[in-house]
Specification:
Layout: E1 2-7, H1 11-22, E2 27-33, H2 36-46, E3 50-53, H3 62-71, E4 78-82, H4 86-96, E5 100-103, H5 107-119, H6 127-139, H7 154-164, H8 169-176, H9 180-194, H10 199-212
Helix pairs in contact: 7-9, 7-10, 8-9
Length: about 210
Amino acid sequence: MNTIMLVDDHPVFRCGMATLIRAEPDLTICAEAASVDEALPLINQHQPDLLILDLVLAEGDGLQLIKHLRTQGSKLPILVMSMYDERLFAERVLRAGANGFINKADAISNIIPAIRRVLKGRIYVSEQVSELLITANVNGKNSQGSAAETKLSDREMEIYMMLGRGYSTKRIAKELHLSPKTIDSHKEHIKEKLNITDNNSLIQRAVTWMMSN
């Protein structure tokens, strides 16, 4: 029996995924969590065979959790499941150490094949993104497309997403264990890359971006 842990801050979505997974005779859910702080002790306690993880959590974010686990030497297979654009985030999560990315819109029909592929030690992304990654590798280019947000580093994207969720500089600093001054520095870099001149415009753009993804 393969054990799976779900980390997502939407209880209804977790319930739906758990029902789909438990319908398979060789798969079961061993634990659920809504935040990074909840997830870490449960991972250590249950030692799941696979972690299914959302990028945006009640506290912290999935990319942060992936990097923490890999820094600690964990080999736990991780499948990211998110509503955000696969073309923008698939390469980021794979680079951070995840083993696959599936868009929530495709989850009902593709979650079981994705789980089985990752459990076999293989990478799972959609066919479209697989082609983008291969083409980018051949051409030596970034696979994420031409949107300005693709210029942001992983840390800048984390902060951008938190701004889009209405987080203050102080709260972002607390969640990322950084100083407010460091967050302000990252915000300046984000504004420069997005060609934005003031903080209000940055927040407005971040909120609009979050709502459209």
